[in-house]
Amino acid sequence: MDTLVERANDVRLLVLDVDGVLTDGRLYFTARGEQMKCFHVRDGAGIKQVLNAGLQVAVISGRQSKAVDKRMSELGVTWIRQGVHDKLAALRELLDMLNLTPQAVASVGDDTPDLSLFEASRLAVAVADAHPSVKSRAHFITQASGGQGAVREVCDLLIETRQIEVNRRVHG
What we know:
Pfam families: Hydrolase_3
Strand content: 15-25%
Low-confidence stretches: none
Protein name: 3-deoxy-D-manno-octulosonate 8-phosphate phosphatase KdsC
Structural class: alpha/beta
Shape: globular
Order of helices and strands: HEEEHEHEHEHEHEH
Radius of gyration: 15 Å
Distance between the termini: 23 Å
Mean pLDDT: 94
Function: Catalyzes the hydrolysis of 3-deoxy-D-manno-octulosonate 8-phosphate (KDO 8-P) to 3-deoxy-D-manno-octulosonate (KDO) and inorganic phosphate.
Largest sheet: 6 strands, parallel
Family: Belongs to the KdsC family.
Number of helices: 7
GO molecular function: 3-deoxy-manno-octulosonate-8-phosphatase activity
């Protein structure tokens, strides 16, 4: 059985759900029917650190939102798929484009539509307030809830495991 550090160290691609992962899962609408999203700044900082460390970051979401496009653009995330009904097919498309295998993937989810991603990922992560069926299939469960810094925890884990590997190689 692989350890969490081993799983995290193999990751080259971080795949994120939006609602319930990058947000708290609640849907906000203005009186004019415009959809609003609330993102946590620490999650954004973590995403930038992961990108700067050379990992790829992708968003695969079942819902469509201009706010997601805007926020991901600000962070430098270029692979964004929204309104996706088959998340596994979207992941396979991305893996083909990047010439990666599922062994290089960490996915973060909160509800049953994310389970197909979990099955195709080296590291499956559930946020603290995820549905029980998602938590039961996760290799790691964050301390923070979705939209409350959970993604930052995952980013920190990925960065820290790389540092552990560097130290191991340097110090034997």
